[in-house]
């Protein structure tokens, strides 16, 4: 395969330790091929729409990082408006939170066109392009309309809802036709893949053309599920490092008489935080012995505070935590410790390891990586228990977790109670199976299996035109 070109909304320098598993894994394959990573610089300029914004080119070893600035108006429409005000809520099944302002879709198209034009000028004939996530769905169609014939793959990191939910988006046919301009489209779960296949059959008369292969809009595409993982080796090394160890010791000392439950999330309405608090309240109400023996630490990092649905969820969560502590707290015990901030990545594994139970209960999540990090950070001799929403993409893989319906607070409370009481032998068995799964499907497996299939698509049908 030729040079790899990764395109994503934001570009991370893979050499920085804060970059996380995905950036590091992509960095490795980019390194191997002397690749290019293209995206938005994160900078805004106060210029009129249509201004030729600045391009920044950096070299990180053999990898070229190329980024462009956005005008504020483009950012408001493409990023805040369409990506996070339409696609994020609808793809997470929240039609009620979507704001279908016509100006947003125009801005989204405009930025994708601009990205296509500026990327095209940097492409080489044998490049293989890999586009990431919901900000850039129409990028391949825009590149194709400018004459790009290179192989292009796409991975959607968030869920894809069923066809009838997609159909509520004004312009959904344009959006979904855009996905069909790729050679390979990857999803997090089989459920998402199934929704895509149903959509293209129902709405675009796609015909099956072999395993995972479709004929649609007069060309062939591949579609498959590639559940993303973490870098398990790196995360276990982080767990053994002094900062995480120090955190572990401190938390274990502080909570030596109590079992710790932990939740770590971005503060997002898809994460089911109020529902989680209601389940915890139910636990305290139904199982009085937990009142003296369990503490929930909930860390929720600030996110997208320029979107109003996010400030609403913040207030709801604060009020629930306050009322639980007010109703159940004692002079020497607070049931919930809620912090609206980010924990340093180097310390996070220590917090996970000191916790008996992780509550990962999103209402909908493409994959969810927190649950995989929790598994990786455990001591296999005395591991904690994962309580996982069946609506996280990870639930398709992590069958040995305690799977819950986060809308059912009584059922979730019963599962948390079970987790708190689970005997050591059962904890070990479940953890062993979970660890084997996340090792087998780590982020390097994800990257390699996607690029392998994209390579195969190339061998079969190079240069299928886009009409
Ligand atoms: P999402 O991408 O929707 O935020 P994921 O679970 O897939 O959800 O990934 C979240 C990542 O961000 C994980 O690596 C997790 O460790 C990190 N993270 C989330 N919340 C926090 C927090 N409050 N403090 C530190 N890291 C966090």
UniProtKB/TrEMBL annotation:
Xref: InterPro entries: Glyco_trans_20, Trehalose_OtsA
Catalytic activity as recorded in UniProt: D-glucose 6-phosphate + UDP-alpha-D-glucose = alpha,alpha-trehalose 6-phosphate + UDP + H(+)
Entry keyword annotation includes Transmembrane: no
Gene3D superfamilies attached to this UniProt entry: Glycogen Phosphorylase B (3.40.50.2000)
UniProt cross-references to SUPFAM superfamilies, sorted A to Z: UDP-Glycosyltransferase/glycogen phosphorylase
Molecular function (Gene Ontology), one example: alpha,alpha-trehalose-phosphate synthase (UDP-forming) activity
Keywords noted in UniProt: Glycosyltransferase, Transferase
Pathway listed: Glycan biosynthesis; trehalose biosynthesis
Gene Ontology BP, a term: trehalose biosynthetic process
EC number: 2.4.1.15
Family in the record: Belongs to the glycosyltransferase 20 family.
Protein name: Trehalose-6-phosphate synthase
Native source organism of the sequence: Ramlibacter humi
């Amino acid at each position: 395969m030729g040079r790899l070109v990764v395109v994503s909304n934001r570009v991370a320098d893979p050499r920085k330790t804060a970059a996380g598993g995905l950036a590091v894994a992509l960095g490795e394959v980019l390194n191997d091929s002397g690749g290019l990573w293209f995206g938005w610089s994160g900078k805004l300029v106060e210029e009129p729409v249509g201004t030729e914004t600045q391009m920044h080119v950096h070299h990180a070893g053999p990898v070229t990082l190329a980024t462009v600035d956005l005008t504020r108006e483009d950012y408001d429409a493409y990023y805040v408006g369409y990506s996070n005000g339409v696609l994020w809520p609808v793809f997470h099944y929240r039609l009620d939170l979507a704001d279908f302002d016509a100006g947003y879709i125009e801005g989204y198209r405009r930025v994708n066109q601009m990205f296509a034009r500026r990327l095209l000028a940097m492409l080489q004939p044998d490049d293989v392009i890999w586009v990431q996530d919901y900000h850039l769905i129409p990028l391949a169609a825009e590149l194709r309309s400018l004459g790009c014939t290179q192989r292009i793959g796409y991975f959607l990191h968030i869920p894809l809802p069923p066809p009838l939910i997609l159909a509520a988006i004004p312009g959904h046919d344009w959006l979904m036709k855009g996905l069909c301009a790729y050679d390979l489209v990857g999803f997090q779960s089989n459920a998402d893949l199934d929704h895509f296949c149903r959509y293209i059959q129902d709405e675009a008369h796609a015909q099956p053309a072999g395993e995972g292969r479709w004929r649609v809009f007069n060309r062939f595409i591949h579609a498959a599920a590639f559940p993303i993982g973490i870098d398990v080796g790196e995360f276990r090394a982080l767990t053994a490092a002094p900062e995480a160890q120090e955190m572990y010791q401190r938390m274990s000392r502080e909570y030596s008489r109590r079992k710790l439950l932990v939740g770590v999330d971005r503060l997002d309405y898809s994460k089911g935080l109020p529902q989680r608090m209601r389940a915890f309240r139910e636990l305290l109400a139904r199982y009085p012995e937990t009142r003296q023996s369990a503490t929930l630490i909930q860390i929720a990092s600030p996110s997208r505070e320029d979107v109003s649905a996010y400030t609403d969820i913040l207030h709801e969560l604060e009020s629930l935590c306050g009322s639980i502590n007010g109703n159940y707290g004692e002079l020497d015990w607070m049931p919930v410790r809620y912090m609206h901030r980010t924990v340093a990545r180097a310390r996070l594994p220590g917090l996970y390891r000191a916790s008996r139970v992780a509550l990962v209960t999103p209402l909908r999540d493409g994959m969810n990586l927190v649950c995989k990090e929790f598994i990786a950070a455990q001591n296999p001799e005395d591991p904690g228990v994962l309580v996982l929403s069946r609506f996280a993409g990870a639930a398709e893989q992590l069958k040995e977790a305690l799977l819950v319906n986060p809308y059912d607070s009584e059922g979730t409370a019963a599962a948390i109670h079970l987790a708190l009481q689970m005997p050591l032998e059962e904890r070990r068995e479940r953890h062993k199976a979970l660890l084997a799964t996340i090792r087998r499907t780590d982020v390097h497996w994800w990257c390699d299996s996607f690029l392998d299939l994209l390579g195969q698509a190339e061998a079969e049908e190079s240069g299928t035109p886009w009409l």
